[in-house]
C-alpha cells in the first residue's frame, strides 16, 4: 500500500512539473520521428532496389515486378522485425519475472523522485540540456543490467 501511495504522489508531482512533462513529450516525439525517418529510408532503399526492374522493355511486366519486389521486401522486413520483437520481448519478460522484486520497485520510485527533484529544486535544465525522462529510464536500465550481471556472476562461482 505504501508503494502505491509513493507512486501516486510521484505521478501527481510529474503532472504538476512543466519541465518534466515537456521532457516526456519530447522523448515520445523523438521516438516517433526516429521511426518516421527509418521508414522513409527503408522506402527509399526499396525503391532503389526495385528501380532495376525498369530496364525490362515491357512496361506492364516492369510495373508488376516493381510492386512485387516492394511487397516482398516489406514482408521480409516486417517478418524480421516481428521475430526480433517477439524474442526480445520474450527474453525481457522472462528477465523481469525473474528479477523484479521490492528492490527494483524501490529503484524505480527513487529514480522518479530524483527526476522530480532535479527538475523542481535544482532546475538542471538551465545547466545541462538533457532529457530528464530519458536519463531516468537509462539509469533504471543500467542499474538493472548491472544487477543481473552481478547475480549471474555470483551464481556461476
Question: What would your notes on this structure say?
Answer:
- By secondary structure, the protein is an all-alpha fold.
- The protein has one domain.
- 86% of the residues lie in helices and 0% in strands.
- It has five helices and no strands.
- Helix 1 packs parallel to helix 4.
- The longest helix has 41 residues.
- The chain starts with a helix and ends with a helix.
- 7% of the residues are buried.
- The model has no long low-confidence stretch (mean pLDDT 78).
Structural shape:
elongated
Mean pLDDT across all amino acids = 78
Instruction: Please provide the ordered H/E string of secondary-structure elements.
Output: HHHHH
Tally of extended strands?
0
Taken as a percent bin, the fraction of beta residues is under 5%
Distance between the termini: 37 Å
What is the share of helical residues? over 70%
Q: Strand pairing plus helix content: what structural class?
A: mainly alpha
CA-atom Rg in angstroms: 23 Å
Helices, by number, come to 5
Q: How does the major sheet shape up?
A: none
* Low-confidence spans: none
Whole-number total of structural domains: 1
Key features of this structure:
157 residues, mainly alpha, 5 helices, 0% strand, elongated
Indicate the topology.
Blueprint: H1 2-16, H2 18-50, H3 59-99, H4 102-122, H5 132-156
Helix pairs in contact: 1-4, 2-3, 4-5
Amino acid at each position: 500500500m505504501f508503494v502505491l501511495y509513493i507512486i501516486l504522489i510521484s505521478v501527481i508531482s510529474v503532472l504538476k512539473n512543466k519541465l518534466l512533462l515537456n521532457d516526456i513529450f519530447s522523448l515520445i516525439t523523438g521516438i516517433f520521428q526516429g521511426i518516421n525517418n527509418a521508414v522513409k529510408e527503408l522506402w527509399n532503399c526499396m525503391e532503389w532496389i526495385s528501380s532495376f526492374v525498369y530496364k525490362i522493355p515491357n512496361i506492364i511486366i516492369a510495373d508488376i515486378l516493381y510492386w512485387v519486389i516492394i511487397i516482398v521486401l516489406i514482408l521480409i522486413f516486417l517478418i524480421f522485425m516481428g521475430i526480433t520483437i517477439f524474442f526480445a520481448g520474450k527474453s525481457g519478460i522472462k528477465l523481469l519475472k525473474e528479477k523484479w522484486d521490492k528492490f527494483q520497485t524501490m529503484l524505480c520510485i527513487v529514480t522518479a523522485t530524483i527526476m522530480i527533484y532535479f527538475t523542481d529544486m535544482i532546475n538542471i535544465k538551465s545547466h545541462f540540456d538533457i532529457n530528464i525522462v530519458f536519463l531516468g529510464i537509462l539509469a533504471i536500465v543500467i542499474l538493472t543490467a548491472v544487477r543481473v550481471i552481478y547475480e549471474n556472476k555470483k551464481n556461476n562461482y
